[in-house]
Amino acid sequence: MQQFTGERVVDDAAVSAACECVRAPEPHSGDVARAGLAAVSYGEEQLVRPDSISLLVRHYQPAQETAARTLLLVHGLSEHGERYDHVARVFAGRRWNVVVPDARGHGRSGGTATHVRQFRRYCDDLNAILDHVAAAPGRTAVVGHSMGALVAIRHAQRFPGRAAALALISPLLRVAVRVPAGLFVLGRVLSFVAPRTRFQTRVDPSLTTRSLDVLARRLADPLIHRSVTAGWFFAMRRALRNAWREAPGLRVPLLVLQAGQDRIVDPDAAREWLASAGSADKTFRCLPEHYHELLNEPDWPETATLVADWLDGRVDAVPASDPASPASLRHPVLRT
Fold it and tell me: CA-to-CA distance for 27 and 81, rounded, in angstroms?
């Protein structure tokens, strides 16, 4: 986490040589059909928050029907929702209205890049998005990856009853990347006096996925940041403490999928946290050979299907005419 003034440029060839990656098809190719894709309609909009931050929100829905349930998909740190387009289309093909925002400071949303002073801003944004799309709590599920999983946990703890099920993918519950003690102390001081001071991430991109195609796109993606602020880092640490402390009070059904070869988050933390959670319905699965980004791994369709099958057991795909379904879901369709 060295302090720096500009974004680090990573050489693709060096990264490829530094890790043993498995050549995989691009996630936006025929694998989508293998995962069960039906015709899907897509749209997007900007949702302006009270602090004037504009959030980019994507909507996916079945093209031939109105789905009665909503899936909110929350991306990880430094990335953005477009990286999960292939996953969203799979779920829309399985009769979900899928909502994929860019978190504030990420992707095409507004705000200072990878910066918040209070982690609850992310949670408040999720709540506003659920309100905006008129998501019925009993017919809503949240899927979060890495930092997005921590956001999903804190949202469920702060706003109990807003979702019927929660799926956490390689959740950020303990950091695996070591921060030197001196740098930690410096960052702590700066989080008070200059919270927007930027530090280079210590995460090696080659540890995110075994797919060379996905890795190459990550390295070429101008919307992926390679730094965080001192304010963000210590806001994240407070959120971690609260996620663990309040775990016994969490009652929503929980699915946790953890990458066995994760070097970004501590793979043991997910199992430990889930054991402390108060839910009577909780499932843990470790995928032993996998890297951190389970939904961007070579066998991502199988992982997406695993999540979808689990969610189908908690939130039924009832017809839209069912009296329990939401009366009006505001999902703009811009193109098919």
Answer: 14
CA angle, 324 as apex, 122 and 125 as ends, to 5°?
10
Is 322 exposed, middle or buried, given 0-12, 13-18 or 19+ CB atoms closer than 10 A? exposed
CA atoms within 13 A on the CB side of 55: 26
In angstroms, the CA 209 to CA 206 distance is 7
Q: Which two tokens stand for residue 188?
A: 């702590």
Give pLDDT tens digits along the chain (336 positions).
333 222 222 233 332 333 333 333 344 445 554 455 568 999 999 999 999 999 999 999 998 888 999 999 999 999 999 999 999 999 999 999 999 999 999 999 999 999 999 999 999 999 999 999 999 999 999 999 999 999 999 999 999 999 999 999 999 999 988 888 888 899 989 899 999 999 988 889 999 999 999 999 999 999 999 999 999 999 999 999 999 999 999 999 999 999 999 999 999 999 999 999 999 999 999 999 999 999 999 999 999 999 999 999 999 887 544 444 443 344 443 333
Per the structure block, which two tokens stand in for 87?
């996953």
Strands 54-62 and 97-101: what pairing? Answer: antiparallel
Three-state DSSP class for 94?
A: coil
Side chain identity at residue 110, one-letter code: G
First-to-final CA distance of the chain? 42
In contact, 72 and 331? CB cutoff 8 Å: no
**Closest of 39, 81, 38 to residue 58, by C-alpha:** 81
Phi and psi angles of residue 261, each rounded to the nearest 5 degrees, phi first = -105, 35
- Residues with Cβ within 8 Å of 82's Cβ and at least 6 positions away in sequence, in order, are 58, 100, 102, 107, 223
DSSP state letters, 122-179: HHHHHHHHHHHTT--GGGEEEEEETHHHHHHHHHHHHSTTS-SEEEEES--SSB-S--
Q: Which one, of 103, 74, 68, lies nearest residue 87 by Cα? A: 74
